[in-house]
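Model: Ready when you are.
Researcher: Fold this.
Model:
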Amino acid sequence: MSDSPASNETGFVRFVGEIVLMIGLAAALAFAIKTFVVQPFVVPSGSLEPTIAVGDRVLVNKFVYRFESPQRGDIVVFSDPYGKLPALIKRVVAVGADTVDIHDGHLWLNGKELEEPYVHGKPTEPGTIPMPVRIPAGYVFLMGDNRPVSGDARFFGPQPISHVEGKAFAVYWPLTGLRGL
């Protein structure tokens, strides 16, 4: 039996169709993962230094907050309240029903000075919003670890949890800084 030109052509068309289908499925899967599960994010500022540096690439779990609320200490990516950047990254320092205040260069939470080893002794100065501030239910108070250079909730106030895009869980670039958060 010899291959006819028609069967060769049909085989080639099938092969090309399968390749196109596989590329389409791979693109759809990548889009779904990035949209709903895990997304890479480039850190735009030094507000979390030295925990995370400018230009570091982090992975953000976009799925976790469908089942639980952000917790104190989580590092989250959220919508820029000023709309200048696609997103910002900060640490959750207070959640709904907490009261935040600043005294003598230290952050106070619910009447007690908060231990914050991640600020490395840098002072926390008041911003432009009046203190103390009680965090409404469904909101979080987000601050950078590098307080002297962080434009954070001291200036833009508590943010709705609905603006939180996900929880940063790992630095994946540069490779020398590969680690969990």
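Researcher: Now this one.
Model:
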Amino acid sequence: MTSVRLGRIGRAHGLRGEVTIDGCPLDPHELEAVGELEWRNREGVVRTLVIESVRPMNQRLLVQFQGVGDREGAAALGLGDLYADSERLPDPGPGVSYTFQIVGLRVVTEEGRELGRLQDVLPTGAHPVYVVQGSRELLVPASPEVLKRVDFGEGVIVVKLPAGLEDL
């Protein structure tokens, strides 16, 4: 099984043991359906956490874990990363993929010219931006006009670069 990072615990919220989760690609219902997460801190300590409830708060999620019922218990989880088995994640839907599924794929133009490999996906307001590392770094907008096809079987992302993008 592949373990996927789902975010980082921020601060304790309130007095009843809730914590904030930053950077989670799942909505509250999807995260709650995952059920069980692995918590890892910087010192290498690993702990299994079972989700009791999840609710949205601005750009973050508030999560209550079973057995964490006060502010001190929640604070002890701070800055820990949360992981789940990829098999436990909900299907993102047709034509959609998780970042962990596409990072590392080759990126080529419609003509077959190799641009490099996808290193990262930067979230933006409208469309994400793909960070492609080849002979040099390219920032490629993942808009429908640019992103033509993702082929997991071939391990490739096909793009049609906007005029002048490589000149920047």
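Researcher: Key takeaway?
Model: The chain has two domains: 3-87, 99-167.
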